[in-house]
Specification:
Layout (H helix, E strand, L loop, with lengths): L4 E2 L10 H7 L15 H20 L7 E4 L2 H13 L6 E5 L4 H9 L6 E5 L9 H9 L4 E3 L13 H8 L5 E5 L11 H7 L3 E5 L10 E5 L25 H15 L2 H21 L3 E2 L10 E5 L5 H11 L1 E2 L15 H5 L4 H4 L3 E4 L6 H25 L1
Parallel strand pairs: 1-11, 3-4, 3-5, 5-6, 6-7
Antiparallel strand pairs: 2-8, 7-8, 9-10, 10-12
Helix pairs in contact: 1-8, 2-8, 3-4, 6-7, 9-13, 10-13
């Protein structure tokens, strides 16, 4: 089977072998429902409790603060919709570069009488301090700013922003889906600074799809999105996906181990990649910002991003045109537009997100293929014009 070299780890990561080994027993003989009182059920409950402990330890939280969900999208919706349901309608403030699973539920609140405030970012994809302060002056009830952008990789000073927001007395949430496993996370430190909730997803860090978590300060009152049997402290009813939760726990533990060393290795690989891209004339988005060590988002003037991605795929390299969740949307990235990037250049955006299995040799082969492809596309453009 044709298997392109994989450079799309921000979309999803390969399932780690250790994670699969941990999951298999719960797909076979240990199939019990964790709510059952017999030994099959008790074994499943013990496995969930152990996984909760592992996830909590990996991100500096207490196990009672970890609410398992089906993934990052559900966790983000649970915070925004669930917290809003316990409040008198006010203002929800989010950054202009949030993932759709934060933007859309925030926009949906307007139907219930809420006001939405989108906070501007600069050309470096970082929240504009002056606009953030202005937004906090309006005393929002809910604030959500992602820790790491899924497209550019730009990191936000979430602890600093939360401290600035303290006077508004808002519940402050951060989507840390892309950050977990790529930079060190400490929910206790963030919580002390004023962050009340944080979203995680298993499949972004070597775990299975179908498992995520909302790490939430127990002072935050929320209504569940899914009512029923009262699972997960009454905040997420439904029979637990034991195998996926077990895999999430192991993956989180593995991701937290040696995160600094892994980040240094990925940053070196990304720097070599970007030196080669710039030498070919690429624009690197958010290059001046502190970014995830594995992420490079770029464009070539006059080259369509979707076309470049398709040709690289056929040449044996799996990369992305922006975010995987919005790959069917022909419009330019809302993140790039918020940064002030011209729509024509934004349509050329391509994201490369590295993983631990990528090598220097693969990066050099990719750069050679990019060069060949760009020359071909420019030649075709010249013939047409």
């Amino acid at each position: 089977m044709f298997a392109p070299a994989y450079f799309d780890h921000n979309a999803t990561t390969p399932l780690a072998a250790t994670v699969l080994d941990a999951m298999l027993p719960y797909l076979e003989g240990r199939f019990g429902n964790a709510s059952s009182r017999h030994e099959y059920g008790r074994a499943a409950r013990r496995a969930i409790d152990e996984a909760r402990q592992r996830v909590a330890c990996a991100v500096g939280a207490h196990p009672t603060e970890v609410i398992f969900t089906s993934g990052g999208s559900e966790a983000n919706n649970l915070f925004i919709k669930g917290a809003a349901a316990c409040m008198t309608p006010g203002t929800v403030a989010i950054s202009a570069i949030e993932h759709p699973c934060v933007r859309e539920p925030a926009r949906a609140l307007r139907r219930s009488g809420w006001m939405l405030r989108e906070i501007a970012v600069g050309s470096d994809c970082r929240v504009a301090c002056a606009d953030f302060q202005a937004a906090m002056a309006d005393k929002p009830s809910l604030v959500s700013v992602m820790l790491a952008n899924n497209e550019t990789g730009a990191l936000q000073d979430v602890a600093g922003l939360a401290a600035m927001a303290a006077s508004s007395r808002a519940w402050f949430h951060t989507d840390a889906v892309q950050a977990c496993g790529r930079v060190a996370l400490d929910f206790r430190r963030l919580n002390s600074a004023g962050v009340h909730a944080m979203t995680l997803s298993a499949h972004k860090l070597g775990g299975p799809k179908g498992a995520g978590a909302l790490v939430v300060d127990k002072r935050v009152e929320m209504q569940p999105l899914i009512a029923g049997g009262g699972h997960e402290r009454g905040l997420r009813s439904g029979t637990e996906n034991v195998a996926a939760i077990v895999g999430f726990g192991v993956a989180a533990e593995l991701a937290a181990a040696n995160v600094e060393r892994r980040a240094r290795d990925l940053a070196k690989l990304r720097d070599e990649l970007e030196l080669g891209l710039v030498a070919q004339g690429a624009t690197i988005f958010a290059a001046a910002a502190e970014r995830l060590p594995n992420t490079s988002y770029f464009a070539f003037d006059g080259i369509d991003g979707e076309t470049l991605v398709g040709k690289l795929d056929r040449a044996g390299f799996a990369v992305a045109a922006g975010a995987a969740c919005s790959s069917a949307n022909p419009e330019p990235s809302h993140v790039l537009l918020a940064m002030g990037v011209e729509p024509e250049l934004a349509r050329g955006a391509v994201r490369i997100s590295l993983g631990a299995d990528n090598t220097v040799a693969q990066v050099r082969e990719l750069l050679a293929s990019v060069n060949t492809t760009i020359l071909q596309l420019r030649g075709l453009t010249a013939l047409v014009s």
